[in-house]
C-alpha cells in the first residue's frame, strides 16, 4: 500500500511533467522531454494508465468496503443502543417485580399474623361456648313421717329424687357437689308439726354455716320454713342442709320437705 502510494505520487508528478513537455514540444520540437527519459529510467516496462486504473479500482473498492463497514457499524450501533434500552427496561421491570414480591411477602406476613390471632380468638371462643354442664336437682326428704336429729346435729338426706340432671346431688349422703366453677341457686321448703316447740333449718357450704332459720309454734299444726341462696362455688364445693340436736322435720308422700338446686351460670 505504501509502495503504491509512493508510486502514485511519482506518477502524478511525472504526468505534470509530461503535460508540460507536450506543450513545450508543440512550441519547440527540438527540446526533448527529460521526464520521458526519467520514466524510462524508473521502470522501463511500467504501463502507467493500467497501474492508475488498478489503483483507482482499488480506491473505489476500498471506498465501497469503507461504506459497507460504516453501514455495518451504524447498524451495530443501533442494535447496541436497542439492546441497551431493552436491558434498562428489563432492569426496571426486575426492580418493579422485586418491589411487588416484597410487598406481597409483607402482605403474606400480615395475613399470617392475623390468621394466628384469629385462631387464638377461635380457640378462646370455643372454650367460652363449651356447652355448660346441665346441673339441676330436686328431692323430697322422706316418705315416712318424722326425721329426728337426737343428741347431735343431723345432715339431712333428701332421699326421694324428683329431678337429678347431672347427678351432682347425692340421695345417699344429702350433699350437692359442684361439678364446675359457677353460680348456683339452692332453695328448700321444710315442714314440722309444732306443738309448743321450735323448728330449725341450716344451710352449709363445705361445713360452714351460711343460713339458719327457725320458728316456734304451739298450735299442733304444720309449719313451714322456706328460703334460698345464690352461691358461687368452685369445683368440688359441697352444699347441704342440717338440723341442730333435738330437732325434727316432717315429710310424707306429699313432698312437704324438699331441697332443690341448679347451676345458673358457669364461670
Ligand atoms: C312426690 O314426689 C314423687 C317423686 O319423688 C312423686 O312421684 C309424687 O307424685 C309426689 N307427691 C305429690 C303428692 O305430689
UniProtKB/TrEMBL annotation:
Signal sequence region: 1-19
Localization of this protein: Secreted
SMART domains documented for this protein: C1Q
Keyword Cytoplasm carried by entry: no
Keyword Disulfide bond: no
Main location: secreted
Cellular-component GO terms for this entry: extracellular region
Keyword terms of this UniProt record: Secreted, Signal
Domain of life: Eukaryota
Sequence ranges assigned to domain C1q in this UniProt record: 130-267
Matching Pfam families: C1q (PF00386)
PANTHER family, alphabetized: CEREBELLIN 13-RELATED, CEREBELLIN-RELATED
Record protein name field: C1q domain-containing protein
Amino acid at each position: 500500500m505504501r509502495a503504491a502510494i509512493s508510486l502514485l505520487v511519482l506518477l502524478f508528478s511525472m504526468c505534470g511533467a509530461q503535460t508540460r513537455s507536450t506543450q513545450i514540444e508543440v512550441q519547440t520540437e527540438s527540446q526533448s522531454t527529460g521526464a520521458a527519459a526519467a520514466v524510462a529510467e524508473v521502470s522501463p516496462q511500467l504501463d502507467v494508465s493500467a497501474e492508475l486504473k488498478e489503483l483507482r479500482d482499488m480506491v473505489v473498492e476500498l471506498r465501497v468496503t469503507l461504506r459497507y463497514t460504516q453501514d455495518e457499524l451504524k447498524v451495530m450501533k443501533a442494535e447496541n443502543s436497542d439492546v441497551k434500552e431493552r436491558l434498562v427496561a428489563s432492569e426496571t421491570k426486575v426492580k418493579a417485580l422485586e418491589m411487588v414480591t416484597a410487598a406481597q411477602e409483607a402482605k403474606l406476613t400480615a395475613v399470617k399474623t392475623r390468621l394466628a390471632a384469629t385462631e387464638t380468638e377461635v380457640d378462646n371462643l370455643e372454650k367460652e361456648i363449651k356447652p355448660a354442664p346441665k346441673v339441676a336437682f330436686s328431692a323430697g326428704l322422706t316418705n315416712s313421717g318424722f326425721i329426728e336429729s337426737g343428741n347431735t346435729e343431723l345432715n339431712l338426706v333428701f332421699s326421694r329424687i324428683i329431678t337429678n340432671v347431672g347427678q351432682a346431688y347425692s340421695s345417699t349422703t344429702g350433699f350437692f357437689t359442684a361439678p364446675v366453677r359457677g353460680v348456683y341457686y339452692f332453695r328448700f321448703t321444710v315442714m314440722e308439726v309444732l306443738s309448743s316447740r321450735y323448728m330449725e333449718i341450716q344451710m352449709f357450704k363445705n361445713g360452714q354455716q351460711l343460713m339458719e332459720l327457725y320458728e316456734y309454734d304451739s298450735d299442733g299444726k304444720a309449719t313451714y320454713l322456706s328460703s334460698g341462696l345464690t352461691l358461687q362455688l368452685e369445683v368440688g364445693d359441697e352444699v347441704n342442709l342440717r338440723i341442730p340436736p333435738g330437732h325434727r322435720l316432717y315429710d310424707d308422700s306429699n313432698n312437704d320437705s324438699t331441697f332443690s338446686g341448679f347451676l345458673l351460670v358457669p364461670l
